[in-house]
Amino acid sequence: MTITAVIPTFNRAALLEQAVASIEADEIIVVDNGSTETIAPRGARVLRLDRNYGFAYAVNRGIEAAQGEAIAIVNNDVVLSPGYLRLLTQTGAWFATGKIMQQSAPDRIDATFDLLARSGCALRAGHGAPASEFAAQRPIAFAPMTAAVFRRELFDRLGLLDESFGSYMEDVEFGLRAARSGYQGVYVPEATALHRGSATLGAWHPETVRLISRNQSLLVAKHFRHGGENRYSRAVIAGQLLWGLSALRRGCLRAWLTGKWQAACTEIPRWTPGDARAATGLADEDASLQLDQILAASETELLRLTQGSAFWRWYAWLT
User: Fold this and answer.
1) Structural domain boundaries enclosing 236
2) Is residue 201 part of a domain?
3) pLDDT band at residue 290 using 50, 70 and 90 as cut-offs
């Protein structure tokens, strides 16, 4: 299977060079989101955009230009171990991701797979855990697009990333589309990588908070509505208010409120798996029940993994 690696970037030329050098692919496409630095990594083709359109837009332009049967989406601050992409494509799954470690603490996990709660809040499973944990290969519903591989056919069937999301949670939204359409991925712990993390804006940057706040609400509006009503109103209200309190503690309440306001002003159509029905055999009337099952399984595992977290203890009590 031929592989095209797509790397969206905004500045960080030195990190990008390391990422490109670690990638073993038939084709590498760097999509430059209007960088002010010179972006010209050796061994990669560069698509230059006139400004920063966000992660989803940049990835989509890379997918459109790609020639490979598999599309690897890789962040500009990731260094892959030898054979990383080969191990993922050999699974034959619709998509796959590996065990991604923290560059600043290589004995600690940065990301494995994502989990999604009924609140619209997502979690990177295993973040901060010792490297020895999450050692078993397993099926997954959500692959973080930090360093993941997708069969090109999956984008042909489900469409590209939703550009309304810009940056953050666009991978969770795509994963939910895939899960609701019957497509499953796999987590491969033998494939490892190092991730610097928050290389563009930084952790709890107000712009990051604004985007996540907005996109949590966009995901809820796109997938959780049924007959004009939110199917999980209690969980959404509890989770979003708790996330807002977390933003307040870090001095980012205004950014959180701005994100919510922007989401309220954004029209986003409700998604159903009708477009994928021919391929999966999924009937429209099964969509609501299937969504319940996906979120119930994901949230149950999320709460099991976060028993020591005050945020998730409060969420479980409120819901």
Assistant:
1) 206-318
2) no
3) confident
